[in-house]
Amino acid sequence: DYRQKCENVDKISHLLSVPTKEIAEAVEKLKKEKEQLQWKVHLSEKEFLTQKCKAVKENTEKAVFFEKVSNVKTLQYFANLLQEKVSFAAVFSGEEKEGYYYILISKKWNMKEVLQKMQQIFLCQGGGTIKMVQGKIYAKQKELELFLKELRLE
User: Which of 23, 74, 79, 147 is in the most buried spot, having the most CB atoms within 10 Å?
Assistant: First the structure.
């Protein structure tokens, strides 16, 4: 057990290119750098999505987007932006193989009813309020686009 720990410390030291006694400081530095990079990615994504939203015409009935983002909060940010311009927004992030995280949002229609319709057709988890639902769905992008295109909102 002790020998394994020593071997791991040596490997980590080598990977970080620091002496073994400086591993903790090197890891802390990497952690801070990672957090800074994640923040920069988050800001870049928000800026990109803001521009996407600006391109959407006011009072559009439906807006559907598939965008890869680094976290669900960014997806929520995008959905909230769209909600100000459209009657119904559906935003997805992820890939077909692993599934998509989704948010459906509307000030006008019951999103729980839309979620129930989705759950009848797709392998879909989620929940929320009448105005907004979110979760994970396993389906092909084309199938989701067709479903949402044909969806009758009442």
Answer: 79
Block means of pLDDT (10 residues each) for the chain, 154 residues, are 91 92 94 95 94 94 95 95 95 95 95 95 95 97 96 82
| The residue type at 31 | K
- Residue 68 is predicted with a pLDDT of 94
- CB-CB contact of 150 with 118 (8 Å): no
* CA atoms of 88 and 81, how far apart (whole Å): 12
The angle that helices 23-54 and 2-16 make with each other, rounded to 10 degrees, is 50
Q: Enter the tokens of residue 89.
A: 């927004």
Cross-sheet strand order for the sheet of 99-105: 60-66, 86-95, 99-105, 132-138, 123-128
What residues does 90 pair with on adjacent strands? 64, 104
Count the neighbouring beta carbons within 10 Å of the beta carbon of residue 96.
Answer: 14
pLDDT for res 154: 72
Q: Say if residues 106 and 83 touch (Cβ distance below 8 Å).
A: yes
pTM above 0.90, yes or no: no
- Rounded distance between C-alpha atoms, residue 93 and residue 13, angstroms: 37
For residue 135, give both structure tokens: 């979760």
